[in-house]
Design goal:
This protein is mainly alpha-helical. It is built from 6 helices and no strands. α2 packs antiparallel against α3. It is elongated and about 70 Å long.
């Protein structure tokens, strides 16, 4: 990181790097949860949801790249061992034992809501103190909010389908 860039930071970089490594761990776990869930998913709307979950997975991977780059810019070391991801992550990795589309979506929704908290926390922590990390956190937060909205929409569609099916059976 450049000398002037260090001078304008108004926060403890060690604490920020720790928070970013936690976020990095969460992004890797989110990537895998989306990716594997999309691959094994079964049920209605599977093909439509699968394609979009793979897009979400790619976006989570992009977030990981952004976070790694920022950790390095701050003079830190990104998490180097995947065995640390579950230890550092504040967001749970939910193993997709039930491949039903609604279950997979609910697991990913939980992850997105946790990610929203993470990036809101990072944005607040860096506001007015580290403009670069703040902007990154806001950009990622916007992606996570969009993911949450997508998932909620699919869950609403599934619920409507269920209700319509009940009406047809009556």
């Amino acid at each position: 990181m450049g000398k002037h860039a260090v001078k304008i930071l108004k926060l403890e970089t060690k604490e920020l790097i720790q928070m970013l490594n936690e976020a990095l761990s969460e992004e890797w776990l989110a990537y895998y949860q989306y990716w594997i869930g999309a691959r094994i998913m079964e049920g209605p709307m599977r093909s439509e949801v699968e394609a979009e979950l793979l897009v979400h997975a790619d976006e989570e991977l992009s977030h990981a790249v952004q976070v790694v780059d920022r950790i390095i810019q701050l003079g830190g070391t990104p998490v180097l061992n995947p065995s640390q991801w579950t230890k550092l992550s504040k967001c749970a990795y939910e193993e997709p034992n039930d491949p039903y589309v609604e279950t997979i979506l609910n697991q990913n929704l939980d992850g997105e809501r946790c990610a929203i908290k993470r990036y809101d926390q990072l944005a607040e922590f860096t506001y007015g103190k580290d403009h670069t990390t703040h902007q990154m956190a806001i950009n990622i937060l916007n992606d996570e909010l969009e993911h949450e909205e997508d998932i909620e929409g699919w869950l609403e569609d599934l619920n409507r389908m269920r209700e319509d099916f009940k009406k047809l059976r009556m």
